[in-house]
Write a structure and sequence with these properties.
Layout lengths: L9 H7 L6 H19 L3 E5 L7 E7 L5 E7 L7 H8 L7 E4 L6 E4 L2 E5 L5 H15 L12 H16 L7 H16 L4 E3 L8 E3 L5 E3 L5 E3 L1 H10 L2 H6 L3 H15 L4 H21 L5 H13 L1
Antiparallel strand pairs: 1-2, 2-3, 3-5, 4-5, 6-8, 7-10, 8-9
Helix pairs in contact: 5-6, 6-10, 7-9, 7-10, 10-11
GO biological process, one term: secondary metabolic process
Protein name: Kinase
Organism: Streptomyces rimosus subsp. rimosus (strain ATCC 10970 / DSM 40260 / JCM 4667 / NRRL 2234)
């Protein structure tokens, strides 16, 4: 195999390079060697690194020994808990197929999809329809002995950070209190536990060959379906905000998605509010965050 002449994409470096002496910085330094190890071990030929790429992993387009195209993904430390296990359980049903996994590095060899064509390329109504059909396939009972965190556990881990961040900005106001209360109450009242994508949105659904649309990049968690739909409600929220009757349009979107997938409207509204406030506060308080986007997310939450 040829030497991998890779440079980590700038977006990835910017997201992880703030602590050069920490685990993320060390991982970035080791990344070219990690890529080469997987190329050699899995007999892959590197075509190119995907640009601009993501903020928590490197994705490279490769060819297998028989010439079949594939995608090699190397996640940053602590950024891809059990992604491979979820993809293995779905086995290509509604999601990219897992071809190989390396437990030591966390590397995944994936079916290659049309990385430049996502559901965001479709008109909104069509995109929501296709998204609903895709996410429905992912909602299965988790396998016995699964490694996935519960939704209650995951959000409990996040809530202390949210409380701390919220204390540094007055923008959230009463919304923050409502958000924290919803986080406490919602998991306790959930009536179902299915495997969720965990980070589902239009940009995570790519064009494929064996199926028109397939999901990628899960952050799997076990919980109720309304949580998975919440970020889908928030998709293209800037477009809603730019139009007239934004608040009514947001509520109609909640109702339409809930009804199309037999999800309780109130629970979807509540999880959407939680995720909007959480994301908004992060944008307002994170170094390099987008303050305008954060304020708009909080405004969206008030519409619900």
């Amino acid at each position: 195999m040829a030497t991998a002449p890779i440079e980590p994409p700038q977006r990835l470096v910017s997201a992880l390079g703030g602590d050069p002496d920490g685990p993320a910085g060390a991982w970035l330094d080791a990344l070219p060697g990690l890529v080469q190890q997987r190329l050699d071990a899995w007999e892959l030929t590197l075509e190119r690194v995907h640009e601009p790429g993501g903020r928590s992993s490197l994705l490279a387009y490769v060819r297998q020994a028989d010439g079949t195209p594939a995608a090699l993904k190397l996640p940053a430390p602590c950024r891809a808990a059990h992604e491979g296990a979820a993809l293995e359980q779905w086995d290509g049903w509604g999601a990219a197929r897992l071809l190989c996994a390396d437990a030591d590095s966390g590397a995944l060899l994936l079916e290659r999809l049309g990385g430049s064509v996502t559901l965001r390329s479709l008109p909104e109504a069509k995109a929501l329809l296709e998204a609903a059909g895709t996410v429905r396939r992912l909602w299965v009972a988790p396998a016995e002995g699964h490694p996935f965190a519960s939704l209650a556990g995951r959000t409990e881990e996040a809530v202390e950070e949210l409380r701390t961040r919220g204390a540094t900005t007055q923008a959230a106001g009463p919304l923050l209190d409502e958000c924290l209360e919803l986080r406490r109450a919602l998991p306790a009242d959930a009536s179902e536990e299915v495997l969720l994508h965990g980070a589902f949105r239009q940009g995570k659904v790519l064009a494929g060959e064996r199926a028109p649309w397939l999901a990628v990049g899960p952050s799997p968690v076990v919980g109720e379906r309304a949580y998975d739909l919440a970020w889908l409600v928030l998709d293209r929220f800037e477009d809603l905000a730019a139009g007239s009757g934004a608040a009514s349009a947001a509520r109609r979107r909640v109702a339409k998605l809930a009804d199309s997938l037999d999800v309780d409207r109130d629970r979807l509204r509540s999880w959407t509010l939680y995720r909007a406030v959480d994301a908004g506060v992060r944008e307002l308080t994170a170094p390099g965050g987008d303050g305008q986007r954060g304020e708009l997310l909080l405004e969206f939450a008030t519409w619900l």
